[in-house]
Amino acid sequence: MNAGALDNAGSSRTPGVLDGPVIQLPDAAAVKRAVLDRLRRAITVGEMPPGARLLQTQLASALGVSRMPVRDAINDLVAEGLAVPAPGGGATVSSLTTDDMRDVYAVRAALEVFAIRGLASTISEDDLRRLRDVIVRSRTIIAQNEREELTALDKEFHWTLYRATGNRFLETALTPMWAQVDRIMYAILSMEDYGTVAWEEHAAIVDALEARDADAAAERMEQHLQRAAERLVHQAQ
Fold first, then answer.
1. CB under 8 Å to 91, separation ≥6 — which residues?
2. Helix, strand or coil for residue 92?
3. Is pTM beyond 0.90 here?
4. Which of 30, 36, 77, 130 is the most exposed place for a label (fewest CB within 10 A)?
5. DSSP label of 45
């Protein structure tokens, strides 16, 4: 078992997330959100690898903000599991083990299979069209070999399903977990695996929803997430 599957992830990633334009927004809440988004993305794409120190002064200077929104954003990253408190104060980017990956996908499967079983009888034609549109757009992104954009489309696909349920507690439960899901997929999945198999599975899920077949939809979602977990762990080892 690999004790730190993402310990070296991102060492060859293209830097630049923290080198973007300084954050200039009209209110404190917007600044905090922007800082959190920038730091979260830097961790996701590997610009800030596991073990990297999150230094408030340096990050505030790089982003063109005061230390307060950086401090608040770091606290949020710790709450999401993307960072851990460091001995002596501060925080570092967390590692992610293969056991963590399995656990994340086990929880996802429990929640998403439950959700999609009920959704088969209630999903609207508009939401079905949105799902099909995401699948169509994915084919272009696969051809362009754009991993980050494809990761974003995967999130859009699943979140379209969540929102279609109308269950706000489902969204609340899954929101913090997706910080880890994004990170896992970006760091581990190859375009060959992710660009073909996963999106064929997405299409099969939508086929079952269009047929209003709750059992098939639930079974295909469970298989999709189980296979995703297996692919992730295999490539991480």
1. 53, 54, 74, 77, 78, 83, 84, 85
2. strand
3. no
4. 30
5. T
Same structural domain, 126 and 225: yes
Q: Which structural domain, as residue segments, surrounds residue 83?
A: 1-95
SS3 content of the chain, % helix, strand, coil (to 5): 70, 5, 30
Which of 178, 185, 229, 223 shows the shortest CA–CA distance to 201? 223
Rg (CA), the chain: 19
Same domain, 51 and 162: no
Of 71, 95, 119, at which residue does a domain stop? 95
Answer for the pair 100, 180: CB distance below 8 angstroms, yes or no. yes
In total, how many domains does the chain have?
2
Distance CA 116, CA 109 (A): 10
Give per-residue pLDDT as tens, 155-174: 999 999 999 999 999 999 99
Final residue before a domain boundary, out of 66, 95, 124: 95
**Count of positions (residues) in the chain:** 237
Average pLDDT over residues 77-103: 91
* Contacting residues for 140 by C-beta, under 8 A, at least 6 apart: none
